[in-house]
Design goal:
Layout: E1 2-6, H1 13-22, E2 26-31, E3 49-53, H2 59-66, E4 71-74, H3 81-86, H4 88-104, E5 111-117, E6 129-130, H5 141-153, E7 159-164, E8 166-168, H6 179-189, E9 192-196, E10 201-206, H7 207-219, H8 221-224, E11 227-231, E12 237-239, H9 240-248, E13 255-259, E14 271-272, H10 275-278, H11 288-298
Parallel strand pairs: 1-2, 1-4, 2-3, 4-5, 5-7, 6-14, 7-11, 8-10, 9-13
Antiparallel strand pairs: 10-12
Helix pairs in contact: 1-7, 4-5, 6-9
Amino acid sequence: MNILVTGGAGYIGSVLVPRLLQDNHRVTVIDNFMYNQQSLAAHCWNPNLEIVYADIRNTDLVRSHVERADVIVPLAAIVGAPACDKDPVAATAINFEATVTLFKMLSKDQLVLMPTTNSAYGSGDENNYCDETSPLNPLSHYAIEKVRVEQALMEHPSFVSFRLATVFGLSPRMRLDLLVNNFVWRAIKDRFVVIFEGHFRRNYIHVRDVTSAFLLALESPDKFVREIFNVGLSSANISKLGLCQEIAKQIPDFVFLEEQMKSDPDQRNYVVSNAKIEALGFEPQFSLERGIGELIKGLPMYDVAMFANF
């Protein structure tokens, strides 16, 4: 198939695009390379990869590539609450306006595989439980825009929305601001972290398992189309304290303390059901333990200043 991936040189795209090429799809990436990354350099030899150095707010350029695509994967975004809070105008222009403009270019038969976020749940019900039918209560600018995008997406006849858990793991375009990646980085470099409201829970998923969810939908689109799926690791609905304890199993001298006098600006606290996508054959391959081990092995190669979104 002809697959258009906007933001394809980012954290998820840099793992997804090689998998698509491996399956002999023809992939066009539109990315402005705002982080000066070289994450797709190893694949430029492949004639099935086209890279367009551009911003998705360039409507005419985007349209010319949308017209040739069978499948669109809109990854281009200002990602994460801190990055969106730093520049909310750009976040709205890219995360919402440019993405909705792209939707309006589509024909009814073009499939859209859209990453949204389970941070849209906010706090869940009285037990902090969430499934795909739960009310949405987005707390951050990032989550609010993702909810608006998902609502616009549902007007398209052929879509899949993946509400992603907090992603972790190594990627050619690394991010050290994601919670698991950040805590492991701190454990390696500082052996110490202070956490706020450590009982707050959220769900996690490895970046390679995220790509597997996209590929599963490509293989069996009739089972996925016009549906919303939580995509997370069901064994990793854990608190921040629990996450630190998991890291300490592999870095025994890691010290973590909970600050009792301050609140966390990120008030997300939920337990997410992933049963819907699991029923369609989704089986994550990367446990939290395995992902932490991967990060311990690989993170010493990185400079933190180069690999955050803010």
